[in-house]
């Protein structure tokens, strides 16, 4: 029997409504889903579209495409300190391939369980492969992390390591040779980024501003600086770069990926410098590296310095010293 749109939804999407959330009253199957949010909470919402061959390679494994799409979307919730609740998925596909759908559904289910977020609705259409995910989370009223609170003297922190996803993309496009033993690491960092939900949830009393690193560290820190009407100085010698990236790229190339490469989905945030000890404890508790990389200053924009305090100018091909 040919797969109808409805049986397709039943077979490949309806089961992803688990884990059930206390806030979801009605999920897939009706014209709308229904949610109830307690008075003490705010609903955090974000939507992202990923188009094949623009935001991910079309020929990638469908389960990896699904995992990456959900992680990328949940990362926005993490950046606001929100807890994931539910998401909707609008998917356009050029054809109805059951093996592709089965793999996609498996990857989506896995990521949904990992982040504790339920699929509650969506839309299924024919067209060039494209995914739009709308994620919803909850955060205690007035407590969401935002981009605008950084103040002069605050320290700048970043989670995990920077530049791996950009290096992975370069590797997959044949532009960066990577040793066999590191190939899996890079693919994982690109396709299965870790949305830093637990970090975001722990920063309500610590961070003054936060953002997730999707466009590149300097660009995203620049958003915090702009919204907070301050400047930022980053000591590039402090940037967390993975051992794998150090081993497979020149120092200059690694720095360029770390500063300007996108797709890392780490959190960048600012906090008063007396929160250092608390952040160290948090980092150990949830087993995610948190590295201090710079300072918020009077002014505007992001400046980079080396360990001697000399200014570094970024260019497309990397960086140059003055
Ligand atoms: P309508 O025509 O009323 O918009 P649809 O036939 O598009 O309804 O969808 C039927 C149900 O299946 C709805 O509850 C919708 O949210 C859900 N749905 C459709 N596509 C998806 C999808 N890709 N993922 C999850 N739920 C979906
Ligand atoms: Mg519809």
Describe this structure in words.
The protein is of the alpha+beta class and 322 residues long. 34% of the residues lie in helices and 28% in strands. The protein has an 8-stranded mixed β-sheet with strand order 8-10-7-11-9-12-13-14. It has a 4-stranded mixed β-sheet with strand order 3-6-4-5, with helices on one face. A two-stranded antiparallel sheet has the order 1-2. The radius of gyration is 20 Å and the shape is globular. Residues 9, 13, 28-31, 89, 91, 119, 121-124 line the site of adenosine-5'-diphosphate.
- Strand arrangement across the biggest beta sheet: 8-10-7-11-9-12-13-14
| Rounded radius of gyration (Å) | 20 Å
Percentage of helical residues? 25-40%
Bound molecules: adenosine-5'-diphosphate, magnesium ion
How many helical elements?
Answer: 10
Could you report the average pLDDT, rounded to the nearest whole number? 95
List the helices and strands in order: HEEEHEHEEEHHHEHEHHEHEEEE
Structural class by SSE content: alpha+beta
Question: What separation lies between the terminal Cα atoms?
Answer: 68 Å
Largest sheet: 8 strands, mixed
Shape: globular
| Number of E strands | 14
Strand content: 25-35%
Residue windows where pLDDT falls under 50 for at least 5 positions: none
């Amino acid at each position: 029997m040919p797969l109808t749109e409805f049986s397709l939804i039943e077979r490949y999407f309806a089961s992803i409504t688990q884990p059930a959330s206390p806030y979801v009253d009605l999920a897939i199957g009706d014209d709308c889903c229904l949610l109830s949010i307690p008075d003490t909470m705010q609903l955090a919402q974000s939507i992202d579209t990923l188009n094949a061959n623009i935001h991910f390679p079309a020929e990638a494994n469908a389960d990896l495409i699904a995992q990456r799409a959900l992680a990328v979307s949940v990362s926005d919730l993490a950046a606001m300190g929100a807890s994931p609740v539910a998401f909707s998925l609008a998917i356009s596909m050029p054809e109805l391939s059951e093996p592709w759908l089965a793999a996609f559904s498996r990857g989506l289910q896995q990521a949904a369980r990992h982040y504790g977020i339920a699929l509650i609705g969506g839309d299924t259409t024919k067209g060039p492969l494209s995914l739009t995910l709308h994620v919803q989370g909850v955060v205690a009223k007035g407590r969401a992390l935002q981009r605008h609170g950084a103040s002069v003297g605050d320290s700048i922190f970043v989670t995990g390591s920077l530049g791996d996803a950009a290096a992975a993309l370069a590797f997959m496009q044949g532009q960066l040779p990577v040793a066999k033993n590191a190939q899996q690491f890079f693919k994982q960092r690109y396709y299965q980024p870790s949305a830093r939900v637990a970090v975001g949830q722990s920063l309500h009393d610590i961070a003054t501003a936060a953002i997730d690193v999707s466009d590149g560290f300097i660009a995203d820190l620049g958003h915090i600086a702009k919204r907070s009407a301050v400047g930022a100085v980053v000591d590039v010698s402090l940037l967390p770069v993975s051992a794998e990236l150090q081993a497979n790229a020149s120092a200059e190339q690694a720095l360029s990926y770390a500063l300007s490469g996108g797709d890392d989905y780490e959190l960048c945030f600012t906090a008063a410098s007396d929160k250092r000890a608390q952040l160290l404890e948090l980092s150990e508790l949830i087993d995610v590296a948190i590295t201090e990389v710079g300072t918020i200053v009077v002014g505007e924009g992001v400046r980079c310095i080396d360990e001697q305090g000399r200014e570094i100018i970024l260019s497309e091909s990397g960086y140059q010293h003055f």
